[in-house]
Design a protein that fits this description.
The chain is an alpha/beta fold. It is built from seven helices and five strands; from the N terminus they run βαβαβαβααβαα. The protein has a single domain, classed as 3-Layer(aba) Sandwich (Rossmann fold), CATH 3.40.50.620.
């Protein structure tokens, strides 16, 4: 019987690639998406599209992090546009998001009897978020063993981060080799009402640069005047 794995899933470029990797590595993936009050909730529609195309089950959990705030993705702060990279932790950082989301994935895994979790964090082409670093992932693995009944009973959880050392171009090349259709994914932090990408936020810039450097046509649907500038 194929072992289950929980893939923390947003319908974006990285998590869609993770979903394909989990399957390629012999797991039966279970996608977990979270509606946490993000202004870019169009990603959840992308999550439905990608999961359906991949033929994997998708669970969507409701959790409103707007009650905490502190981020341009969950509050009234504007999403920075055309910002230069490497200027510290940006206002699109959502306090404790990956800790909370991985905790939900861990609970789902314990119910499913899964010992493996996948998350598409990356320490090369990313926005400087502290909860995307290898140190955080290893610490969460230790927490998972201490915080669960399964862990106390001897289960060892593994948090897989197959994209950690890849740049966006490498991720795109790998995903294409696994059949990922990036035209149905969504990455933009500040999309138009119809879901078109702004082309100017950090997520759009990183995504567009990845396609350019991979030598792959960018299938993203941009809003008028929204083509990335770098």
């Amino acid at each position: 019987m194929t072992r289950p794995a929980v893939v923390l899933f947003s319908g974006g470029l990285d998590s869609s690639t993770c979903l394909a990797i989990a399957r390629e590595e012999g797991f039966a993936p279970h996608a977990l998406a979270v509606r946490y009050g993000q202004r870019h909730a169009h990603e959840l529609r992308a999550a439905e599209r990608v999961a359906a195309a991949a033929g994997v089950p998708l669970k969507v959990v409701e959790l409103d992090l707007r009650a905490i705030g502190g981020s341009a993705l969950t509050g009234e702060l504007p999403v920075p546009k055309d910002a230069p990279p490497g200027q510290g932790i940006p206002v699109t950082y959502v306090p404790a998001r990956n800790t909370v989301l991985l905790a939900l994935a861990l609970g789902h895994a314990e119910v499913l009897g899964a010992q493996d979790l996948y998350i598409g964090v990356n320490a090369i082409d990313y926005s400087g978020y502290p909860d995307c670093r290898p140190e955080f992932v290893r610490a969460f693995e230790s927490l998972a063993t201490l915080a669960t009944r399964a862990g106390i009973e001897g289960v060892r959880y593994t948090v897989h981060t197959p994209l950690m050392s890849l740049d966006k171009a490498g991720i795109i090349r790998l995903g294409r080799s696994l059949g990922v259709d990036y035209s149905i994914t969504h990455s933009c932090y500040d999309p138009s009402p119809d879901g078109a990408a702004c082309g100017r936020c950090d997520a759009c810039q990183l995504r567009a640069r990845g396609f350019r450097e991979a030598g792959v046509p960018d299938p993203t649907r941009y809003a008028p005047g929204g083509m990335p500038v770098r």
